[in-house]
Amino acid sequence: MAAIATLKANQNATIEAKITAVSEPRDVSTSRGPSRVADATLQDESGTITLTLWGDDISRYSVGQKVRLTDGWVKDFRGKLQVSMGRSGRIEIIP
What we know:
Layout: E1 11-22, E2 26-30, E3 33-44, E4 47-54, H1 57-60, E5 66-77, E6 80-84, E7 90-94
């Protein structure tokens, strides 16, 4: 399990964190066609990072939930680190 403060771009990561904010979904055009995207802020004791949520995942997660992101992909987007599920990642809610 990695602490958010130790994450670096272009690596896979497994983190546990609390969702502290979720942005309003927005419509975007992708190479696969139109989609919806929202940003969730994840926080652990070491810091915060943005989690990108796509499509149906937007409604699955909400502020206050603790989640475990397994095999997420960390990238640098406009100078800030973000994490997404990437190809093989998954998110689970921790009760």
